[in-house]
Amino acid sequence: MGSESTQDKAGPELAGSTRKWLVKQLIALAIPVAVLFAASGRLDWTLGWAYVAVFFVGSGLTAVILLRTSPDLAKDLSQLQKGTKTWDLVAAPVMVYSIVATWVVAGLDARFAWSAAPHFRSTWRRPTCRWHRRRVPEGPGAVARA
What we know:
The chain is mainly α. The protein has one domain (6-145).
């Protein structure tokens, strides 16, 4: 009686469009995995898998919340609408290409170690003053005490 869901009221058309939206989302989730690991050239990249896990959880939670609260909105947001502003038509591809470029650079960085930093403990030193060969004071008011 009063316990019918909005999906039941809308009929099979909404259920079909929801399935179609979910398939699109799953494909969209597979793209970063393919780009990241193709660029890195290996599957044993731990930070890559950590990124994918965070990406999946965030995207999955967003999808679940959106589908439970407003499946129509999910459908509307996943496609261009009549009357879409010109700046939206320009900004959307720029954002997508920027994100994909970030994945490519991250994967290539994992492959070639462009941003490899020395071990943390080896860099954990107070700087020394080059002229006096003494430690540089630290903390607030350190300059006044030096």
